[in-house]
Structure to design on (74 residues):
């Protein structure tokens, strides 16, 4: 076998999701090939935690809290 038989696969461009937090997590995985394999689990666990946080966050601005109406006075 020659070195040509072991060519590195090319990395395809990743489409943007439109969610900046999710896109940031995905782009942080771009350098995974440079991380030792023994550290991949920790990288994926961190990315998973960040994705859960991003996807669990409410979409858009937080609506204002309605004013509290005074109750009947005794």
């Amino acid at each position: 076998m020659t070195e040509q038989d072991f060519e590195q696969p090319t990395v395809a461009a990743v489409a943007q999701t439109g969610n900046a937090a999710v896109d940031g997590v995905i782009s942080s995985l771009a350098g995974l090939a440079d991380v030792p394999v023994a550290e991949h689990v920790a990288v994926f666990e961190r990315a998973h935690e960040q994705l859960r946080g991003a996807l669990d966050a409410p979409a858009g601005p937080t609506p204002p809290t309605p004013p509290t109406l005074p109750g009947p006075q005794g």
Summary: The mean pLDDT is 80. DSSP finds two helices and no strands in the chain. Residues 40-56 form the longest helix (17 residues). The helical segments are 20-28, 40-56.
